[in-house]
Amino acid sequence: MIKTKNLKFKYKRGNEMNFPDLEMASGEQMAMIGDSGSGKTTLLHLLAGILSPSSGEIVVDDTNICKLKQNKLDEFRGKNFGFIFQKHLFVEDISMNKNLLIAQTLAGGSKDPDYVSQLTEQLGIAKLVNKYPSELSQGELQRFSVARSLVNKPLALFADEPTSSLDDNNCMRFITLLQKVSSEHKLTLLIATHDSRIKKQFENILYLKPSGK
Q1: pTM of the model
Q2: Separation of alpha carbons 61 and 73, rounded Å
Q3: 126-168 confidence digits (pLDDT tens)
């Protein structure tokens, strides 16, 4: 479960952002929709503990992450959250398999080649694991991004503008894939986007407006 209360954040140069209270049950799927400047990415980073709020609470499965010290927060993030970004951010000079194994160790865990193999089989990319990022198509890289987000068996999956560069068909395919793997792995899924095409794919939608509007 993810729950926020009276959450506020202020950049050094900018207005204070006030966010609506959010409550997501375990396994719930939600789209967070708003124009540029509405605070979508900021809220996503707050929920993940990448940013610290000016005030308010963020509770994840009975843990108030705002009260965790930095080392404990980093550990909690690595174990509980998976991320998918607009850009893929893979290490270019190593294979996709090594990229996935490294992602496991960055979270403080150990390499688990069997689980990586299981994920790549599930996502239909097992035959591509020895290729390098530059050798893959956009769609293949997206599937590896999903695999990387799952390698540490997180509780929640956060995606930041994952469809902004996709045409309509690929947009729908990718969102369907995210929803499918989230259901299969019983993950809470939150997608931050300004892409209005996504609205019809979700029953639960959080709309954000720029501060002052």
Answers
A1: 0.89
A2: 14
A3: 999 999 999 998 888 989 999 999 999 999 999 998 887 778 8
Tell me the two tokens of residue 187: 């993950």
Per-residue pLDDT reduced to its tens digit, 13-42: 878 899 999 999 999 999 999 888 889 999
Amino acid, single-letter form, for residue 156: A
CA distances from 179 to 95, 136, 166, 201 (A): 27, 23, 17, 9
Domains and CATH numbers, the chain: 2-94+157-207 (3.40.50.300)
Cα separation, 138 vs 101, in Å, equals 21
Q: H helices of the chain, where?
A: 40-47, 70-80, 96-106, 113-122, 138-150, 168-184
- Beta bridge partners, 23, equal 3
Query: 96-106 and 138-150 helices cross at what angle (nearest 10)?
Result: 30
Question: Which pair of tokens denotes residue 155?
Answer: 């509780």
Q: β-pairing, 81-84 with 156-160?
A: parallel
- DSSP bridge partners of 58: 4
SS3 state of residue 118 = helix
Q: Which of 200, 172, 199, 183 is nearest to 32 (CA)?
A: 199
